Amino acid sequence: MKSTYQLVQFLFFIALLPLQGQMKEKSMMEGKMSSPYARQLPIDTMVKTQHSATINGTAIAYTAQTGTQPVWDEQGEPIASLHYTYYTRNNVKDRTARPLLISFNGGPGSGSVWMHLAYTGPRILKIDTEGFPVQPYGVSQNPYSILDVADIVYVNPANTGYSRTIPAHGKEVDRSKFFGINADIKYLAEWLNTFVTRNNRWRSPKYIIGESYGGTRVAGLALELQNAQWMYLNGVIMVSPADYKVLRTGGPVSSALNLPYFTAAAWYQKALDPALQQKDLLEILPESEAYTVSTLLPALAKGGFISDQERQAVAKKMAYYSGLTEKEILDHNLSVPTSYFWKALLRNKGGFTVGRLDSRYLGIDRQLAGVRPDYNSELTSWLHSFTPAINYYLQEELKFKTDLKYNMFGPVRPWDNSNDNTRDNLRQAMAQNPYLNVMYQSGYFDGATTYFNAKYSMWQIDPSGRLKDRFSFKGYRSGHMMYLRKEDLQNANNDIRDFIKRTMANGKSAKY
Q1: Final residue of a structural domain among 325, 347, 377
Q2: Can you give the CATH number for the domain in which 498 is found?
Q3: pTM of the full predicted structure?
């Protein structure tokens, strides 16, 4: 009798297993986990919270939706789950006419924290007006957010933020599906198709914004979304974009393009020749740019066959525009690495190094000698503010409870950089889509992805010149994350707001 009872209990338990799985799945979809904390990522979950902010003087109520959404393989199995945060303005009668901005940071391997908590979102870091950290850490309202004109989703690619890859059936993760220029673009386009479908945004005008490596990402996504997902965009916004057609190739072009950045950084640090230093930055940069294109680039192209007279003349002018000495420039054969500039610019003017991503920031090395700084002074400063703020904000304000570590920079290496056609792909996307416009935003003091490199990249996208009226460039008196400076936070958000308003179709047909 007892054994029969145990058998019935066992069969009843087996019968409940599928139902328990369904209940667990439903619970995860609703964001209700059995424990508020979990070291394992929920594959598909979501939490909604209600908030308000005053933006451009207007009180705005909005919904924050944060959670995870799977990346599917060809068999429909989840191979990763991406964490995202999605903001929608409340009380919008016609969501089809409201733009959707899709936001990525770069790295590759960086979470979406940077633009999320310091640029376009409704909350920003507690920092001073120039972008330096202050304690206690935290967030405050962003009075310049673009949430008044567009809904925004911030996406963390695989292994960044709370996003993680998922081993399938006990096998190791196939890293080739995620960690490379083309793989990254392909799976993110698929993921965005699912996101847009789930959130009923197919009819909305769409924009994508990418910072640093994110510029490479969104340039490629523009064509991938059109050709593989049949999703057409109104705009692509490149924030301090990395163009590896220049950055990784070296040679005369790559080297020459650094000079206008040298001019800007040296001007900020008051290290230029007095004749230049007394002028405004925007007076001297066109002069440095013209010299770069007309004189420096052809001189570097001559290599070792340049005449001694021309070599001396170029070194003298480069010293004038860079704050370095003629000897330093001649010792580098007129091709000065940016890493040497960061180390040497202030070597005899206080002994500080200057930041790579933002040369307004200063660092102190172990010794004055050397050819590159010991550390990135600007990045360590930023991590002071961003790391505690994003962990506090997601867990305490947006109620996404997890024991997972938020990866400011995630394990994505090695990264496959081969077959990078993203610059050409962006041109093709624009040619196919008359609605598509592109805006570049760069900080003059960015020494990693310099503003003049961005200009040059923009010039090279369409050799025919027939698309040039659909490109625009905006420069700011700050660095890689130009929005950390309060004045540029306001200006850069207004530039995005104007770009969106200007590129809305407003009933106009997509035709040439």
Answers
A1: 377
A2: 3.40.50.1820
A3: 0.91
